[in-house]
Write a structure and sequence with these properties.
Distance between the termini: 33 Å
Shape: globular
Oligomer: single chain
Order of helices and strands: HHHH
Largest sheet: none
Length: about 100
């Protein structure tokens, strides 16, 4: 199947959300992103680069588990890494604002 091309993030985001319809997948993304923010704070506080590695493993680990076990699809990171990274944080903000359901 050919990879779909997107002209902008605004065009990509609805597709991104369609790949995150399962609430368990969204919850895992949210938990992983929250933990990433904690690792980032630890990195800033200590300057220890291992916290960056911990953040990468935690963030992607939770997100990919959501896709493989609940959403049953391949993470958008594999197809559109930059837009997917942006989408993670926009979705996180949308959940915090109550624009997207998590429960």
């Amino acid at each position: 199947m050919p990879q779909r091309q997107f002209a902008s993030f605004a065009e990509f985001y609805p597709y991104y959300l369609s790949e995150h319809e399962n609430l368990a997948c969204r919850r895992l993304h949210f938990i992983g992103s929250t933990l990433v923010l904690g690792w980032l704070a630890a990195l800033i506080a200590t300057g220890n680069p291992w916290f960056l590695l911990a953040g990468l493993f935690t963030g992607y680990g939770f997100a990919w588990a959501g896709h493989f076990f609940f959403e049953k699809n391949r993470p958008a990171t594999f197809k559109n890494p930059v837009y997917s990274f942006m989408g993670d944080w926009v979705m996180y903000a949308d959940i915090l604002r109550g624009r997207l359901r998590m429960f």
